[in-house]
Amino acid sequence: MRAPDPFVPSLFRVDRVWREASDTATLGLVALQGEIPAFLSGQFFMLYAFGIGEIPVSVSGLWDRGPLLHTVRAVGAVSQALCRLRPGETVGVRGPYGSPWPLPEAEGGDLLLIAGGLGLAPIRSALLQALAERGRYGQIALLYGARSPEDLLFGEEIERWRSRPDLQVEVTVDHASPAWRGSVGVVPARIADARFSPERVIACVCGPEVMMRYSASALLRAGVPAARIFLSLERNMKCAFAVCGRCQFGPTFVCRDGPVFPYDRIARLLSIREL
Ligand SMILES: Cc1cc2nc3c(=O)[nH]c(=O)nc-3n(C[C@H](O)[C@H](O)[C@H](O)COP(=O)(O)OP(=O)(O)OC[C@H]3O[C@@H](n4cnc5c(N)ncnc54)[C@H](O)[C@@H]3O)c2cc1C
Ligand code: FES
Q1: CA 248 – ligand 2 centroid, Å
Q2: Beta-strand (E) ranges in 81-167?
Q3: How far is the CA of 256 from the centre of ligand 2 (A)?
Q4: Phi, psi of 82 (to 5 degrees)
Q5: Which of 48, 72, 97 is the last residue of a domain?
């Protein structure tokens, strides 16, 4: 019997669509046949908008809770087509792929989650997992920065997170609107306000690369070892399973060895915009 073609996606139906911001939507997907494949927080799937193309998108939810959740920002042809999908329509899905957030390594210590912009999507998945197993961690802190108050994602959920006594939430924006009463400034600057022990924290960072570079530098200055800082890297992808070489740099495949890398392994790749 022939092995299934790894490039052929499974069919999923759009169950729900939530508008998160003017250019960003969360899709809730259900499998037309079989179950949602098991995945871990931090992994990604390839989503195929029929007739247009296929892109990598992180999961923003949990595996064992309801539909498969992906939060997509419309930046080009495929992501725009995904954001235009309506309930009942069909999308192609293959995966999961890549490395997860190192939540098991954080158990017994502190967890610091740092998100910039759309980076909150994969960070949300890690936070939901950690909150579902709250007793396994010491301090948990979420630092989240967006361009403006209008760009903040998961707004109602952030308010619920803020009300939890067992979770520190710090939100900041680059540019405030007149009604904004919160913090203004870049998210790496908020690392000094986070409650964590540098030698027993695992820091997970996702956002624009410049924000991740500054966050990593601030964490190193705060005494966090490079091997305890994890970044999720974005690079163009085609196959997603280390065959086409599209995301390859030397012996490293971002699709297979990442997207989540320890900083001590990835610092050099961060300076290279496209592979
Ligand atoms: C592992 C991984 C996980 C990802 N997770 C998510 C996710 O959860 N949600 C999500 O929306 N996207 C995510 N992305 C990024 C997403 O794959 C790209 O935005 C997508 O490939 C763009 O394809 P397109 O056809 O829509 O646009 P293209 O036609 O490829 O690009 C259109 C324009 O947008 C620019 N562009 C491309 N990518 C980005 C980007 N990431 N940010 C800003 N501008 C960009 C291009 O330079 C170009 O100018 C992830 C990427 C990787 C590698
Ligand atoms: S996307 Fe093909 S090798 Fe990574």
Answers
A1: 6
A2: 90-97, 110-116, 140-146
A3: 8
A4: -65, -40
A5: 97
Based on the fold, state whether residues 148 and 173 are members of the same structural domain. yes
Q: Encode pLDDT of 222-261 as tens digits.
A: 999 999 999 999 999 999 999 999 999 889 999 999 999 9
Instruction: Calculate the alpha carbon distances from 88 to 15, 16, 153, 172, 226 in Å.
Output: 6, 8, 24, 36, 45
Measured from the Cα of 56, ligand 1's closest atom is 17
Asked, for residue 55, whether it belongs to a domain, the answer is yes
Index of the ligand 1 atom closest to the CA of residue 70: 8
From 46, 246, 269, mutation site for ligand 2 pocket: most ligand atoms within 8 A of C-beta: 246
Cα(95)–Cα(20) distance, integer angstroms? 24
Give the total number of structural domains in the chain: 2
Q: What is the mean pLDDT of residues 215-219?
A: 97
Shared-domain flag, residues 107 and 93: no
Q: What is the pLDDT of residue 275?
A: 40
Ligand 1 centroid–CA 272 distance in Å is 16
- Give me the residue label for tokens 């999507």: 121
- For residue 237, the ligand 2 atom closest to its alpha carbon is 1
pLDDT above 90 covers a percentage of the chain that reads 88
* Domain assignment of residue 125, yes or no: yes
Residue nearest to atom 43 of ligand 1 (CA): 75
